[in-house]
Structure formats: structure tokens, C-alpha cells
Design a protein that fits this description.
The chain is an alpha+beta fold. It has helices at 15-23, 32-40, 85-99, 114-122; strands at residues 5-9, 45-52, 55-65, 68-76, 104-110, 126-131, 142-148.
Length: 149
Amino acid sequence: MNKTITFRKMTVEDLDDVIEVEVNSFATPWSREAFFNELTKNQFAQYLVVEVDQKVVGYCGVWIIVDEAHITNIALLPDYRGMKLGEALMERVIELTRELGALRVTLEVRVSNERAQKLYRKFGFEAGALRKQYYTDNMEDALVMWVNL
């Protein structure tokens, strides 16, 4: 059964769906207001969603400041993980950062999140530093990863 997969810029109308992805993905999810502010007030922010059969099942956010891009978050609904959608979404976001003039992309990832780290390494990301006790829910360290485009 073929599914229609589309990628597009996130809009305010997507927030209910995005919050559903968020609360199913993170121990300390961002609020609706945080996403609203990202979309309406943050001039550096770019957010993409991935839809399967016109249902938002994931998203990725990035801030592009001069020539550096910082991936803020990437998430998929649990039922849609393992289908290469995260990889395709990441590919589109990196493409977007390139188009907008970024020379480097950076992100933080939980040291325990080996699945995500494996995905990022596919795109050439390397571990650069450790941010001690970065995650407030359990004080887990974050691995800072980066790639030159």
C-alpha cells in the first residue's frame, strides 16, 4: 500500500499535530506557545513537517544564524519511526540550511540516544563536545555534534 509522503514548511495550523508529536517524543516537551513563538517571532527559525497521507507525523526545527545552523529538535510519532522518515526529514533540513547559506550545522543529542546519533553520523556529523547535565528532566549530558557542509 503506497503512502503519500510530503515535506513542507510548518504553519501555525500545524501546531495541534506538532504538539502530539512532541508529547509522544520528549520527556520535557516544548509548549504550544514555544512553537508559536518560533513560527511567528523568531526570524532565525525554520521548521519543516513531514506528512504521511496528509497527517503530520513529524517535524524538524533549525535556527540559521549567519553561516551556522543549529538543529533545535527533530521528532516523529512513535508509530512512524524506523521508516526512514527521520532520515528524509534530516536530508531536507540540511538542504534548506545549505540554500540559506549555512556552512556548518550543529545539534545536541542525549548521550544515551544512540539511534539518533547513528542517524546524525549518516550525514557526517561528528561528536564535538559534551554539555554536562544539559537535559533538565534527568540531568543527562548532551553530546554536541557538528558537520561542515
